[in-house]
Amino acid sequence: LLKLGGYGLIRISSMLNPHPPNLMFPIMILALWGILMTSSICLRQTDLKALIAYSSVSHMGLVTAAIIVQTPWGLTGAMTLMIAHGLTSSALFALANTNYERTHTRTLLLVRGLQLIFPLMSTWWLLTNLTNMALPPTINLLGELFIISTLFNWSPPTIIITGIGTLITATYSLYMFLMTQRGSISTQFRVLPPTHTREHLTLTLHLLPLGLLIMKPSLISGLFA
């Protein structure tokens, strides 16, 4: 739904070009403020699925701000980040579901230390979280760099907000990984069903396109043909 909303903004904003200032600034302020607020909310979440959902809202704040600026780099960054985060966020929800099917709880404090039981699934958690925090050379980083550069050219003080948002994103991504995979596991979860091939295939089909797009980002950006 967030990606459909981003597509709708792209289609509607092109009809309002050039934007009237009284329409542009309130939306931009809300988008930038939303980046900080939703990222901060992620830091205090105890529900795993709620944390992932708020993470998506935070990233869409960047997309909204880039679309409103209406520059080629901004639209390219918005498209790149929507595609990249669409795959990343879906993979995170799939991982959260694999945990829930075995432990029947989404509370982070109750389920820890799953790396000892599911080492391969822990690898998927690590790769997906690193992608979520836009680690080089993922296309998530490409999209965020386009957007941050666009916003900086529009107004240099925005680098403070986007920089803080990026730091908070890295913080809650590491927090999510450590809370689900590290630490001592509860005695009630010592015996859990093993992971299935279909689950690993699902995650492969999420992360493989992200890895292949690193090789040829022009497929979604259009600037490196």
TrEMBL record:
Tell me which family the UniProt entry assigns to this protein: Belongs to the complex I subunit 4 family.
Name where it's found. Answer: Mitochondrion membrane
Q: Which reaction does it catalyse?
A: a ubiquinone + NADH + 5 H(+)(in) = a ubiquinol + NAD(+) + 4 H(+)(out)
**Gene transcribed to yield this protein:** nd4
Q: EC?
A: 7.1.1.2
Question: Which of UniProt's keywords are assigned here?
Answer: Electron transport, Membrane, Mitochondrion, NAD, Respiratory chain, Translocase, Transmembrane, Transmembrane helix, Transport, Ubiquinone
Tell me a Gene Ontology molecular-function term this record carries.
Answer: NADH dehydrogenase (ubiquinone) activity
Q: Name one GO cellular component term.
A: mitochondrial membrane
Q: How does it sit in the membrane?
A: Multi-pass membrane protein
| Domain NADH:quinone oxidoreductase/Mrp antiporter transmembrane, residue spans | 1-169
Name assigned to this protein: NADH-ubiquinone oxidoreductase chain 4
Q: Recall the taxonomic lineage recorded for the source organism.
A: Eukaryota, Metazoa, Chordata, Craniata, Vertebrata
The membrane-spanning stretches of this chain are: 23-43, 50-69, 75-96, 108-127, 159-180
| Annotated InterPro entries | NADH_UbQ_OxRdtase (IPR003918), ND/Mrp_TM (IPR001750)
One GO biological process from the UniProt record? ATP synthesis coupled electron transport
| Source species of the chain | Podarcis tiliguerta
